[in-house]
Specification:
Largest sheet: 5 strands, parallel
Structural class: alpha/beta
Number of domains: 2
Number of helices: 8
CATH architecture of the largest domain: 3-Layer(aba) Sandwich
Distance between the termini: 118 Å
CATH topology of the largest domain: Rossmann fold
Strand content: 5-15%
C-alpha cells in the first residue's frame, strides 16, 4: 500500500495548521513548530498515522465491511463524492441529517421513499403536482444520493473536518462505530479512533489524504471499486446528455436572432420607402405650383 511521502504532503499543504491562537492543546503532540503564528504539523507523524488508518480500512474492506465517507464543507464535498464512488462506498457530501445513524430505521424509510420517487413516472400528473414532486426529489437527492444503497449501518466512518461533522462523529461514537478522520490543529482528537493530523481546509491536503484512504479500501477489495477514469467518464457522459439541450437552445437563439434581424431590416426598408414617397410628393407639389403660376401669368 503506497502512502504519500513527506515531500508529497508538503507540496499538498498537509503541514499547515490553524493560527496558534485558535489551536486545541490536545493536538500538541502532533505539532512540529510554529511559523508566522501558524502551527506546522509534524509530517513524520502524519505519514505514520495515515498508514495506521489505511491499514485498518484495508483490513475491514477485506472483511466486506462498509465505510461511510463524510465531508460536507465546500472544499471537501466533490472530493469525498468522487473518492467514495471510486471505491464503491456510500457517502454524505451535501448535508448530514441528524439521526442519520442513531435513527437509521427512519432514515432507511426515507431512502426507500426517495427510490420510489426516482422511479415514479411524473408525466401524467398536473404541472403543479409534477413541480412539487420534482422539488422534493431534488431535495432528497442532495441528502440521500450517496447512501441510497446503504441497507445497514456502516462499519466505519471516514470524516473530513470533525468540527463541522461533529453530529456525525458523536452519533458514530454513541453506536461504537470506529471513526477515521483528518484532524486539524483546532480540533479535539478525543472522539476519533484513527487520527490523521493535517490540514482539513486546503483542497490539495484533503485530496491526497482521501485518495490514500480510497486506495487502501480498493486494495482491500471493498465496495465496487471504480477506476478514476471510469468516474471521470461517467461525469463526462452526464455532460454529454445535457449538451444537446444546450446546443438546441443555442440554435433557437441563433434562429431568433436571424428572425429579429430580418424583421428589423423589413421595418427599415418600409421607413426608407415612406421617406422616398414623401420626397416624391413634395417634388410633384412644387412642379404643380410652378405650372399654376405660369398659367396665372
Amino acid at each position: 500500500m503506497a502512502i504519500p511521502s513527506m515531500r508529497e504532503m508538503l507540496e499538498a499543504g498537509v503541514h499547515f495548521g490553524h493560527k496558534a491562537s485558535r489551536w486545541n492543546p490536545k493536538m500538541a503532540p502532533f505539532i512540529f513548530t510554529q511559523r508566522d503564528k501558524i502551527h506546522i504539523f509534524d509530517l513524520a507523524q502524519t505519514v505514520e498515522m495515515l498508514e495506521k488508518a489505511c491499514n485498518f480500512l484495508e483490513k475491514i474492506a477485506k472483511e466486506g465491511k462498509t465505510i461511510l465517507f463524510v465531508g460536507t464543507k465546500k472544499q471537501a464535498s466533490s472530493i469525498i463524492k468522487r473518492e467514495a464512488e471510486r471505491c464503491g462506498m456510500p457517502y454524505i457530501s451535501e448535508r448530514w441529517l441528524g439521526g442519520m445513524l442513531t435513527n437509521f430505521k427512519t432514515i432507511r424509510a426515507r431512502i426507500k421513499y426517495f427510490k420510489e420517487l426516482e422511479s415514479r413516472d411524473l408525466e401524467n400528473l398536473t404541472k403543479k403536482e409534477k413541480a412539487r414532486l420534482l422539488t422534493e426529489k431534488n431535495k432528497l437527492r442532495q441528502i440521500f444520493e450517496g447512501i441510497k444503497d446503504l441497507n445497514d449501518l456502516p462499519d466505519a466512518l471516514f470524516v473530513v473536518d470533525i468540527i463541522r461533522e461533529e453530529t456525525a462523529v458523536r452519533e458514530a461514537n454513541r453506536l461504537k462505530i470506529p471513526v477515521v478522520a483528518l484532524v486539524d490543529s483546532n480540533n479535539s482528537p478525543n472522539l476519533v479512533d484513527y487520527i490523521i493530523p493535517g490540514n482539513d481546509d486546503a483542497i490539495g491536503s484533503i485530496k491526497i489524504i482521501a485518495q490514500s484512504v480510497t486506495n487502501a479500501i480498493i486494495e482491500g477489495g471493498g465496495g465496487k471499486a471504480k477506476k478514476i477514469e471510469e468516474v471521470k467518464q461517467e461525469s463526462e457522459e452526464k455532460k454529454i446528455v445535457s449538451k444537446p439541450i444546450k446546443e438546441t437552445k443555442e440554435k433557437v437563439k441563433k434562429v431568433s436572432k436571424v428572425a429579429e434581424a430580418t424583421e428589423v431590416s423589413k421595418i427599415e426598408n418600409k421607413k426608407e420607402a415612406k421617406k422616398t414617397e414623401i420626397k416624391e410628393k413634395k417634388i410633384r407639389n412644387r412642379k404643380n405650383l410652378k405650372r399654376l403660376k405660369k398659367n396665372q401669368k
